[in-house]
Amino acid sequence: MKHESDFGSAVPPDGAPLPDRVRGFLLLHVFVLAQHGYVDRASTILEALHALGDAGADVVLGRAVMRFFRQDWPGALACLDELDRIDPIERFGQYRMTERQRMRRYVKARCLFELGDGDRARDAVESYLRHGTATGPDER
After folding, report:
1. Position with higher pLDDT, 102 vs 132
2. How far apart are CA 63 and CA 45, in angstroms?
3. By C-alpha distance, which of 135, 65, 60 is closest to 99?
């Protein structure tokens, strides 16, 4: 009987994107590691995914959050800037932010505050407050 690795034939050739199933498993693994306080291990997986060319919003947000947990304020801001290009929060008119968008605003405000940029931190907090509470799963 032939035994394959944990990922079996799901490991792509060089340069090919990871299959959705493998990527999803790795992102779930990152979440579990972070929940248990293994921020460095979770960061390693996210940085590896990024190095493999995965620039999806989930990976970039994860990198921002892991850097935030390590108090790497400039690094977290750099990831949030990248994320704003990939998946912008800002819209025109009235709208309510999702929980994920509100968390991004909080992380940005905190990073700016920690770096001593009070004006930009205040702007981020005002945007966070201006758009009300997050939408629930049924309100999106």
Report:
1. 102
2. 9
3. 135
